[in-house]
Write a structure and sequence with these properties.
This protein has four helices and four strands, in the order E-H-E-H-E-H-E-H. By secondary structure, the protein is of the alpha/beta class. It has a single domain, classed as STAS domain (Transcription Regulator spoIIAA, 2-Layer Sandwich). Helix 3 links the parallel strand 3 and strand 4. The longest helix is centred in the middle third of the chain and has 16 residues.
Length: 124
């Protein structure tokens, strides 16, 4: 299953993501892979990140996996700074994300090498 985000994922628009989740992921069956295509995402606030974390948690609890594809640079940097790149499965494109195998519960499925940031200075 693929969700494609367009424009802003914020306080005002996150309800649409919740509605799509409820519609598409309702039921008691085991969840599979869900890909969130972020290629057209232009903004994401803390409400949007919370919605993605909620989806990740719901899928993990049902044996599924959430992959974010084509994450824009602004969000990728935020994920790296906050450590969320170790929580979310991040893939460069949707096709790659669709081919992501399920991981054992509690394991990191993807993310940047944490040592890649070591010793580098960052603007704040």
């Amino acid at each position: 299953m693929i969700f494609t985000l367009h424009g802003d994922l914020d306080f005002h628009s996150v309800v649409q993501l919740y509605e799509a989740e409820d519609k598409e992921l309702s039921g008691e069956q085991e969840a599979g892979a869900v890909v969130v295509d972020c290629s057209r995402l232009t903004y994401c606030d803390s409400t949007g990140i919370s919605a993605l974390l909620k989806l990740h948690s719901q899928l993990s609890a049902r044996g599924g996996v959430l992959c974010l594809s084509a994450v824009p640079a602004f969000l990728d940097r935020l994920f790296a700074l906050t450590g969320l790149n170790q929580v979310f499965c991040l893939k460069t494109d949707t096709e790659d994300a669709l081919n992501t195998p399920r991981a054992a519960p509690g394991t990191v499925t993807a993310g940047a090498d944490p040592t890649a940031w070591a010793g580098k200075e960052h603007d704040r």
